[in-house]
Design a protein that fits this description.
single chain, about 170 residues, mainly alpha, two-stranded antiparallel ribbon, 2 strands, elongated
């Protein structure tokens, strides 16, 4: 297996230290990515979900509203559930969210069982989009687009490395 550190491939990897939320910049290379990516995920998701809860909405509701709005044609419940379930907290969550949105009159079904946004659903989706944009500004404060892109490229490469290792 090729071992990498920084931009070279001929050195041994940096020893990994235990996760330390107070780690200084000079030792960040020794920190476990799983800890930091998990902490970032939990913190950002909590921030987003707390803000949405204050307006009586949820992140999965936002996902469903966007999915129903965003396709070239109206999706079925099954298509929405299949696409969004990998993001959800459990296998039944998205189906329940569809039921909640139908109950709230944010979604309606047509004669063919396809889902559509109602006017109230479109208003809610736009309002949630504005909220998410504001929250993204908070999360990205002090981070340039270049830094953000670099961070995502690194994470994408780490995912590919693990997936490649799993295939070999």
């Amino acid at each position: 297996m090729e071992q990498t550190t920084g931009t070279t491939t001929d050195r041994a990897p940096t020893d990994q230290a235990p996760a330390d939320p107070a780690a200084t910049d000079d030792v960040l290379a020794t920190q476990p990515v799983g800890y930091w990516s998990g902490l970032a995920h939990a913190t950002v998701t909590r921030h987003l979900r707390d803000a949405m809860a204050r307006i009586d909405a949820t992140q999965p509701q936002y996902w469903v509203l966007n999915r129903v709005n965003g396709g070239p044609s109206a999706p079925s419940r099954e298509e929405v559930v299949a696409q969004l379930s990998p993001l959800a907290d459990g296998p039944d969550e998205i189906s329940r969210v569809v039921d909640q949105l139908l109950h709230r009159d944010w979604l309606r079904t047509d004669a063919g069982g396809r889902l559509h946004l109602t006017d109230a659903g479109q208003t809610a989706r736009v309002g949630l989009r504005e909220l998410v944009t504001e929250l993204r500004t908070v999360v990205h404060r002090g981070i340039s687009d270049e830094e953000y892109t670099a961070a995502l490229r690194v994470l994408r490469r780490m995912i590919a490395n693990v997936e490649d290792a799993g295939r070999s």
